[in-house]
Amino acid sequence: MANSDNQSSLVVAMLGAPNAGKSTLVNRLVQAKLSIVSPKAQTTRFALRGIRTIGKAQLVLVDTPGMFDANERLGKAMVQSALNGVAEADHVLLLLDASRANAVETAQKLLASQGGNKAPISLVLNKVDKVAKEKLLPLTAALAALHAFDHVFMISALEGDGVRELEQHLCAQAKPGPWLYPADQLTDINERLFAAELTREQLFMALQQEVPYGLTVETEKWEENRNGVKIYQQIVVERESHKAIILGKGGSKLKEIGQSAREAIGAQLGRKAHLFLHVKVKEDWKDRPEYYQSMGLEF
Ligand code: GDP
Ligand code: MG
Q1: What percent of the chain has a predicted confidence (pLDDT) above 70?
Q2: How far, in Å, is the centroid of ligand 2 from the Cα of 16?
Q3: How far is the CA of 18 from the centre of ligand 1 (A)?
Q4: How far is 142 from 262, CA to CA, in rounded Å?
């Protein structure tokens, strides 16, 4: 039995605009690839917890969808999920892409949006690998005027610079009490959803314009056997034309996507995966509660 003496934990939520690097940072802090990442905005659709236990301190890192002006149901549910993630946190990281010219305005909006949570907020300037050093000081000064931040960090979530200091700071803030999860648990999402996310990541990488935003992936069947696991997934799209794009000539595009997804899933599960994908048109999936449920989103 693990001794719960001296255990401590901290729930830390990411608050940021789309593409700030929230998922990249959570993956780095957890030292595992949990949350999918792409160069496209709004890749993350629901709040997901990554867990990292360092010595006696457990950090629960809540990755969230970005905050944006949503006008459709799915977008609104994503933003709500981000707000819920922030509301339940002990500590909030306001993550900004420091290379963006509008960082101050973005921070202002984010601070206004996050509502009543009284948890301390630290400012995290990300992507400093892309910014000239002399620009960071005036930017930090302008941002510091917006809020009494608990702490300011300058990091590259991609390359790892500054992440150690951030991690140590968070561990030092951890509150006494038994851990929220077993020390070896990495995330709160299950394998079926995780596998669907890995396929969606490949779709986000391979597809352009509105096509990735119009689709969702569902794991329908999961069969374990001695040789590995057979996974059946459905890619749900809103239009026939999107289905045709995903299939490609003679199904070639879907085959490529399936291969990359199978490799990613196999690597993550640590066992051989066979992946069976099929594409289905369901025009109104974004208006059906069952698709929100599987992602843990409010309908
Ligand atoms: P999210 O939408 O906030 O979750 O952002 P992601 O983690 O999905 O990252 C969006 C894009 O920014 C991806 O292409 C990442 O590789 C990239 N990115 C994230 N962090 C950094 C960083 O520190 N430096 C650079 N140059 N790119 C980054
Ligand atoms: Mg993300």
Answers
A1: 99
A2: 9
A3: 9
A4: 46
